[in-house]
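Record pair follows.
FIRST:
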Amino acid sequence: MDIPERIKELREVLELSALDLARETGIPYETYIQYERGDCDIPISVLYSIAARLGVDPTVLLSGEDPKMDTVSVCRSGMGIHIERFPGYEFSSLAYNFKHRTMEPLLVTLDPNKEPAAPVTHSGQEFNYIIEGTVTILVGQRTYTLSAGDSLYFDATVPHAQYAIGKIARFITIIQNI
């Protein structure tokens, strides 16, 4: 619930109505209200749109703190900002402390025993590199089954989703922020 609360607080500080923020970020009002109440997961691309409109780095929404680094940012093992996007899909932001980043590298963990998420779209491009396990990636109407060491690069405006097969899988995804 921290992220929706931060969004609402910043919106209110800026004296911006929920309707205006939804309209200015291109999010249907009903969907925006669900995000702000914490009723549904907020896609990373939507977080970036909201952060841009609120005039903050996305790290502020994720952690409540401003990023500090502008030349180099090290993220030690297990120290990224951990987010459970929905049950069975968790990620850690690996560059959360770098100001003005144009890419979002994430370490994603998928649990095949949980209900998979619906496909999403966002601006930019995306790169997935499988670290362990087997992941099926849906991009548009095609599916790709990848194992450790395999990778996939795709247009993120095409509906896409990732599913673990058999056991917990981990992969690095790098999302281009446009």
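SECOND:
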Amino acid sequence: MQSFGLVINLGKKRVKKVTPELINWLEARGKQVFLPINKAGILGCPERGIAEERLGETDCLIALGGDGTLLRAARLVSDSGTPILGVNLGHLGFLTEIELGELYPALTELLAGNFSIEERMMLQSEVLREEKTLAGYRALNDVVITKGAFSRMLRLEVYVRGAYLDTYPADGLILSTPTGSTAYSLSAGGPLVAPELEVTILTPICPHTLYARPLVVPAGQEVRVHVHAQGAEVMLTVDGQQGLHLQDGDVILVNRAHMPARLVRLKERSFYALVREKLREG
């Protein structure tokens, strides 16, 4: 690996101190380092700034922050499949690979080639309005349809692979990857799913029917959701970071993205041990 892109969360207290040190460490070993133009300017190194969408041209992304920073990094390189190393400066750190204190020993192993790549399925979603594509998004965790704070419940008409499933009277619906099964979906009563599986998890949010339960479907089967919410405020959110106001009659299509997220792994640890450790901390 000869070039590195940095995706950083300037809201984390230690980032402004750690980032220049990390840049110096990598450049002392002959590596090129790039940041988004605005972040490079803030940190006083504008010569290292490139357009954010070009970060996928680097050999590896380092995400300095928490799970949210890694989710953002995954969307930035969702077309290129650039490997991502997550460094936890946050609280829970379910997705990130290493803690800050492990950074330089871990990078030494990375540069020596002592790592593996773990692929995580992503979701591709499209919003149709009057049969025209309004927007498209990629998600590593989830795509969520939810009502506003003062809205009445929604009616969400759901089809899987073209077959009618049900119309949920509910506060919303979470469409999650296995990676996202430990996030919002879990809080709404969805199942934990091992990350190597390729499935989509449908979890209704506060359904107003006793029989409505989470459903797991094969990843290659398109899920289509028709929104019935006349006069209600409805939002689509992607990984909790991107959002779009929906209207009555909008249709959301969700399927497996063509490219998975590729996460750098330096440790031998099982998903089940991680679940036990992190959820107990949470």
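COMMENT: The mean pLDDT is 92.
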